[in-house]
Every structure is written in structure tokens, then in C-alpha cells.
What does this fold into?
Amino acid sequence: MFMAKRRKAKKAKKKRKAPKKPFGGMKICPDAHLGAVIGKACITPSQMTKKLWAYVKKKKLMKKK
It folds into this structure.
């Protein structure tokens, strides 16, 4: 009897995902009042939130329960 040869399956290549830009790459430029708290440079919204919370904790502006 004649038997057909089995072919080896090809391995699928994994595609690398591109790193995500924070908030679509949008940056916020603070005015003079906000710039005194977080700095004058344009930053992403997530960086702004981190800097605001650091300021609040440093100055102890949160109400205690």
C-alpha cells in the first residue's frame, strides 16, 4: 500500500502590538494658576492627575473622616 507523507504544520507568527498612547496622545497645557501646582509643561491627563494627588497629599488638603 502507498501512504501519503504528512506535512508539518507551519507555526503562526505572533504580531507585536504597538504601545498605546495615553489618552490618544492629547496633552494639556496648564494656565498660570494650575501651572504653579503641577508645573508649566504640557502633560497628559494621567500625569496631571498624579501630580495633583501628590500636591493634595503633600499639603494635607484631604478631609479626615
Notes: The two ends are 86 Å apart (CA to CA). Residues 27-59 form one domain. The mean pLDDT is 85.
